[in-house]
Amino acid sequence: MKKIAQGIVRLRKLILTVAVLLLIPSAIGAIATRINYDILTYLPQDLDSMIGEVALEDDFHLASTGMITVEGLPTNELIAMKKDIEAVPGVTQTFWLSDVIDPNIPTEMLPADEQAIARYGTEASNGVILITLRYDTPARFPEADGSFNDYISAQTDWDDSLPAARVVLRYKITTDGRTVPTDELEATDRRLRRRVIDAVEKAPRWQPAMRDGKPVESEGVLRVQLPEGKSIPRPLEFIMR
After folding, report:
1. Going by C-beta distance under 8 Å and a sequence separation of 6 or more, which residues neighbour residue 1?
2. Cα 163 versus chain centre, distance
3. Burial of 115 from C-beta contacts in 10 A (0-12 / 13-18 / 19+)
4. C-alpha to C-alpha distance for 165 and 179, rounded to whole angstroms
5. Whether the predicted pLDDT of 219 surpasses 60
6. Which of 67, 100, 177, 218 is deepest in the core (most CB within 10 A)?
7. Are 149 and 221 in contact, with CB atoms under 8 Å apart?
8. How far apart are CA 226 and CA 190, in angstroms?
9. Do residues 73 and 81 make contact, with C-beta atoms less than 8 angstroms apart?
């Protein structure tokens, strides 16, 4: 060990030089390596599990699914969480007990789902929410350091002297990466609305969402409030007595 240590000290400049040179291809490889979230692409197509996945997708569109177990939440919070999940871009549908029976029925009056508890544990005592996804890899906006919202806010000309305003739009990302506004969810100022839509239509192209190795359309919700740091005044309310 002593001779090895002496050799490292004696050749330290050479060792450091080699280490730095090896860092160069390592850095290039790290930057150029894309993350593939679809593990199914690595499996042989003749596996029974792969054949089953193809059948689920082609016949029922259920190949990309997820499940969430919940514990101790009241029904109203579960339904609210289910609606929030449905609003997430890329989610096709969610399924829970409320899709089958009236949610106003107390859970104490329902028989316990022993199969769900046996599979997912006691956390599933309130049920399991089944989530169906539209794609394997979400769309990515490569031009922004932060989010797409931040990029559009920076591209929208809105002077600090102007009143605070907010625009919320739903947009579609096409298979070729274009951003297309589809629905206006909120617009407190028509001028800001026009400028935001103009910035969206001029935005650089996305890397589209991928499913089964092919680009697919996806959706998103854009929320822009300008000027930053200003709050929107509440509308006046008149109460007649």
Report:
1. none
2. 31
3. exposed
4. 22
5. yes
6. 218
7. no
8. 13
9. yes
Phi and psi angles of residue 168, each rounded to the nearest 5 degrees, phi first: -125, 120
Q: DSSP letter for 157, please.
A: -
Whether pLDDT at 236 is above 70? no
pTM value?
0.46
Cβ neighbours around 135 below 10 Å, total: 22
For residues 156 and 195, is the Cβ–Cβ distance under 8 A? yes
d(CA 144, CA 8): 45
Q: Are 133 and 90 in contact (CB under 8 A)?
A: yes
Could you tell me what percent of the chain has a pLDDT over 70?
A: 70
Give the pLDDT mean for 195-217: 89
Q: Is there a contact between 72 and 126 (Cβ–Cβ < 8 Å)?
A: yes
Tokens of 6: 């002496």
Report in angstroms the alpha-carbon separations of 102 from 79, 84, 125.
Answer: 12, 20, 18
Q: Where are the alpha helices (H) located in the chain, listed in sequence order? A: 2-10, 12-32, 48-55, 75-86, 114-120, 148-155, 190-201
Reading the block at residue 172, the tokens are 């579609």
Taking Cα atoms as reference points, which of 37, 41, 59 lies closest to residue 50?
A: 41
Which pLDDT belongs to residue 237?
47
For 132, the enclosing helix (H) or strand (E) is: strand 128-133
Specify the pLDDT at position 241: 47
What's the rounded Cα separation, in Å, for the pair 215 and 45? 20
